[in-house]
Structure formats: C-alpha cells, structure tokens
C-alpha cells in the first residue's frame, strides 16, 4: 500500500520506462471502463483484481513497476485538468481497492504511520445512537464474536462521498463512520497530498542527476510522454485491415449502417455542405483510409473523392487542388514520416474539440466544425434530436444521455452501437465501450456479415 | 418601479448599516484592512435594462449607500468574499473566491409536478405552506446534522466544552438566515465560519464538499419511476423529516386541499391500479372525509413492504424540499440580497423567522408602493 510520496531515484532503461507506462495505462483503462459501466462492489473488485494480476502482479518486479509507472503516468497526465481528473479518479479507485483488500492489521498500521488517527466512539455513545447508525448505513449483522462494529467520529468534511450519498449518520457536524467505510476518509484525505508537479520538475527529480546515457534520449521521452495521455492501448488500427475493404460506391450505405456517430456525422456534413474543415478532413480521412478505402483508392483517388464532393458546390477543381490538395499526401504517408494512424477515441475526445467557446454556445456546427466526438460536443437537445433521427429508442436515448452527463462518452457510443445493431450486446462484454472508431466499424461489419451472406 | 420610489427606498429604508455589519462578520474594526471581510465581498447591481454590473465592493456602509443612490439598481446580488477587493479585481493576478456562505435556493418553479401555476402570483402565495415546510425541514437538518443539534452525551460534552474540546470541535452551523425571495421562493444563508470556509473544490479531483452537503440535503429523483428515490430503512435525517414534518403535512395539505384530479395523479403514482381505483372511489363517495382519515385509508391499503416503500416515496415526492443544487455547489454563484426589492413583484425580500414561518404571508410583504404610502402618511 503506497501513497507514492517520493519519486523513484533509481535509473531505469528507456524500454522499461515505456513498458511500465503502457501497463499502468492498461490497468487504469480497465478500471475506467468498469466504472463507466457502473459496475459496483464485488464485480468491480473482481475486475480490478484481474487487471492488477495481469499488469501489476504482486511480485518484486511488479512492485517496482507499480512504483515507477505511477510516476511516469503522473508526468504524462499532469498537463491538463481533464487528464488529471481521469488519472486521479482511476488511481483512487485502485487505491481504494488495495486499501480494502489489505488485512486489517496492515491497514491500522498504515493509518498510524500516516498520522490519520481517528477517535473511535465509546460503548456508551454507541448504545445511544445505535439505531440511527444502523439506519444510516445498513451493515450485515456483525458476527457474535465481535459485538459491535467500530465507529469513528470525524468532521463531515472528511467523508464527503459518504455524506453525498447519505450513507453516514451525521450529528452536530460530525459524521459517525463505520470501520468498513473508513476507506472513504482515506480517499478524501489523499488528493490534497497528491500534488502534481510540473513535468519538468518531476522529470528533473526522477532523473537527478541525469544519468549520462539518458540525456540524449530526453527528446524521445518527452514526445513519448506527450503522446501517452492520448495513447490508445487496444488493437492496432494503424494499418488498413484486410478483409474490410469498402469500395467507394458502397460508402453511402456503409456510412449509414456501420459508421460511428462521429464519422457518420462528418460524412453527412460532407455530402450536405460539400465541405469539411481541416481537422475534420484529417479525422475522417484517416478513418476512411483504415477501413480500406485506400486499397482501392490510391492517394490520388482519395484526393479525388474529396475533390468530387467539394467541387459539387461549384468550387473550381484547380482551386481545390491549390487549397486542399495538401491534405491527402501526408494522410497516405507521403510526406514527413509522422504517425498518421487513424485516431483513437481518446485522441478524438481529448485533442480535437472544436474551440471551447463555440461548443459552449452550441455553435460549433454553425462554425462549420464537425470533427471531435459528438457525444462530447453536442448539447443535450442536439444529441437527442440526432439520436431520434437515427432511430434510437427512447430508453436508449435516455441511457446515452445519462452516460454523456457522466462524461462516459465511449460507453455512450457503445450503447449507440447496440441500439443501431439490434440484438448485439457490446456493453456487457469485456469491451464495455468503443475505444476506436475503426473498432466500431469492424464490430459493425462483423455483425452484418452473416446477414449479408444470407441475403 | 420609478427611480423616485427606488431613491426613496434606498435613501430612507434600506438597512445598509445592518447589511454591512452582517457581511463584515465582526471584522470591520480590524487594524489590518486586508482582513476586513466587507471590502472583499462582491456586490452586483442590475439596472433596469437587465445589465449586470459585477464586482462592486464597498469599504463601509456610506460607500454602499452612496452607490445605491447613484446607480438605483433594480436588483442587488451578493457574491463571494474574494482574495482581494472585487472592485480592483483587474489589478490582481490571483483573484479567486475565498469564502462564501452556504446558500440554498428553493423555488416553486422546481415544484412544477404539482401543476402549480407559477406564473400567477396569487397561486404562488397559496403554495406558501410548501415553502414553509421546506424551510423547516432544511433548517432542522442543517442545525441538527451539521449544527449543534440536540445535546448528546450530556456529561461528557459539557466537560469537553470547558476544556480541550473547545479547541478541537469546530464551529457548527447555527447562524442560518432565511429570506423571502420576493416572489415564490426562499433563500437560506448558512453564515457560520465553518460553512463559509468550505472550499468548493478541494484541491484536485471532484471532492466538492458543498456539492456533497447539497446532495445530502437534496433528494434524488429516480427518472424511471418519477419519484424521489428513498432507501429503506430511511436515513435518520430523512426519517426525522418524514415523521415530524412530511407525513403530517401530507395529509393536512396534500390530501384535503387538492382537487380530485390531483389526487388521481397522486394515487396513480402508487403503480397499483386496483388500489388506486378503490381509494379514488371511496374518496369520491365521501368528499367530506378529512385528510387524516384518507391517509389512514391509504396506509391500510398499502400493507406489503413494497407498496409501503412506494407510498413513502410518493410522500417524499410531493413534499420534500426541492433545492437548486447548483446554487449551493459553487462559491461564485450570486444570490439576491436580503432587503432587495424583487423587480417583478415590487416586494421586499424580507428575512423570515423560521419558527413563525407558518404565519408568514407573502401577500402582506411590504412593496415599494406600500412603503411609499407609509412614509407619506
């Protein structure tokens, strides 16, 4: 059980560094998905245990990995409020799990060591408020060997989440917390002690003094950290998949049937307005490339596709080539060797939001910006209307809107998938949600494949 | 709403001195001017054409009064205590709210399920008992759960207070101000230092103490059933409210006062058509039946644990205070000042004594007009 108070000082190799980071990211993503699905109690614990055993086993190396990877991710995730929250929430969940699953003696020792001493109420006090305590937090009847569960008296500010859920007895500004809920105090007490230092200072402290062989790799580490936050750890969609080649002629049908909402939206807008702005072209273009269009479409043809759509509105072809022709070559790896694999949901959600101001005003469509994740960018009314138009049932709409409110965009997308593919159960499976637009597409193709063959 | 009336009101009636004493919280005489709370408090005036003038602040009552007379605001709001005087907020790089009363806003608009016609003032006044009930329930919860409450463990508590306990136990919620909002709601201001100092965000993450308190007090609407979700056994705080306030109110107001249509809707919420119909029949046959009798009848029909739980939820749905959680959550939310004149009704937002809130009659609240008449007389 560690609060990660001191950053590690021992040097590690760069490949270890990357491996550790990925494994922790996988662990936290698993927790995130489990939480997003609303798993509680035993189910959640089982999920965390499984992921922990897989990625951070309780072995000497596993412990070192845990220790290092926490700090590496801290580095990567301290750059924005959103990322911080994501990281913190999932770390917290992991911590809670560890806390609850530690033997009581260890727990007590740990509390003592951290100076978190709480006063247990006396027997007399307990007798006096016994009934209220039971009403407030129904506990399973305690075994006869222990006549009463210990309760601790703390200021209500320290057990915020219990207060919020009305799961604790309050009197006179004090909360009476059963021993089993003690984790709540610890969890509340923890964040203030988890200052997230700026990346440079932490980098400096992680590697003080910078070991000579590492300094020339600093660049590599920096870009690795930068990318980590939006890193996608699922299947690799960086290359076009075989077997999913879609021809240009099929595009309208396929778009309607198998595109995730973000891509469908952009396709629709492209057809409607004959135009897409740069970010949208990039997001959409990469997606198209990966579903196999470029197998038929060389780089020039892809340009031709956009040109055909753009010029329908009367834009001169040469104007198109002059103003927009620059887009396709890099998408097809003809320019600088950069990573032009299709964007994952994490990337789409976090990095390509239409400017905040315009999305607040609900005007991003008006501004002609259609990239990003619709589940995040649309306001509720717009979302509802869109879903109804896509013939999503009222109950599913409600579910989706709930998830959106809870910022679980990927689960919302998963539900959208289910609603559009009657009889499929995506959320219930291990997947939980959609992690990648191309994953959505492939799942959809898989779903329709047998039916197409039958037809 | 003429400028003359407003000038008269701000000049001769508005208790600027008392306001400043309240908002100063005893710090007005401190030698260190930075520690004086009043001058770091944000005021906001709203002009007749709905323009908000934010970040006003005053060093003393004279300043406030002078500006009131100069600007003749139609509405006055009070914001948070900031790290620096809000009127110079552009000078400081770091300008953020530091303290804020815990505020609770209850408005009849949130009670639209009762099909109260909130646009018409008279009906709003008829609904005052609901507001009074909300006020009593919340005030009691604040005082007992977060405040001193009935004394517990007499001997030890007394001993503790004399000795070291004094230092350890923080101040509690005791200073609660209830203000009539001028039309159809009430505002509660919890002014104790402990409440004021609750940060809205504790460092990182979403550990919002204010939000938690609001959620603790506020109900959770279950969208599937359209009822407030209440767990059995009830939380002690809810159980107390139910026993002492909600249940009596329910049969004295909800069962007698309402027309048959309203009762039909109410009974439909039991989700048991057979029983609902029986009860409705019985009620129609004997329109003279008193609320208490009807209540007994309903209760005798709802015997199974499941139905009883639903019935409890229905009672909560109809009576439990609906507070606007968002107002309480943040520190930077403006709230209409006491003694402000409501721009639509002309009524003064007068403080209400909770122990006498039953007798309070919104329609007898002084308006600018009546004040003018009184002054002339």
UniProtKB/TrEMBL annotation, chain A:
Obligatory cofactor(s): [4Fe-4S] cluster
Keywords: 4Fe-4S, DNA replication, DNA-binding, Iron, Iron-sulfur, Metal-binding, Primosome
Pfam families referenced in this protein's UniProt entry, alphabetically: DNA_primase_lrg, DNA_primase_lrg_N
Gene3D superfamilies according to UniProt: 1.20.930.80
Keyword Ribosomal protein attached: no
Statement: the UniProt record of this protein carries the keyword Transport: no
Entry GO terms, CC: alpha DNA polymerase:primase complex
Chain ranges of the DNA primase large subunit C-terminal domain: 254-441
Homology family: Belongs to the eukaryotic-type primase large subunit family.
Protein's recorded name: DNA primase large subunit C-terminal domain-containing protein
Highest classification ranks of the organism: Eukaryota, Haptista, Haptophyta, Prymnesiophyceae, Isochrysidales
From TrEMBL, chain B:
Entry GO terms, CC: alpha DNA polymerase:primase complex
Record bears the keyword Nucleotidyltransferase: yes
GO molecular function: DNA-directed RNA polymerase activity; metal ion binding
Domain of life: Eukaryota
Group of enzyme by EC: transferase
UniProt KW keywords: DNA replication, DNA-directed RNA polymerase, Metal-binding, Nucleotidyltransferase, Primosome, Transcription, Transferase
Protein family (similarity comment): Belongs to the eukaryotic-type primase small subunit family.
Protein name: DNA primase
Originating species: Emiliania huxleyi
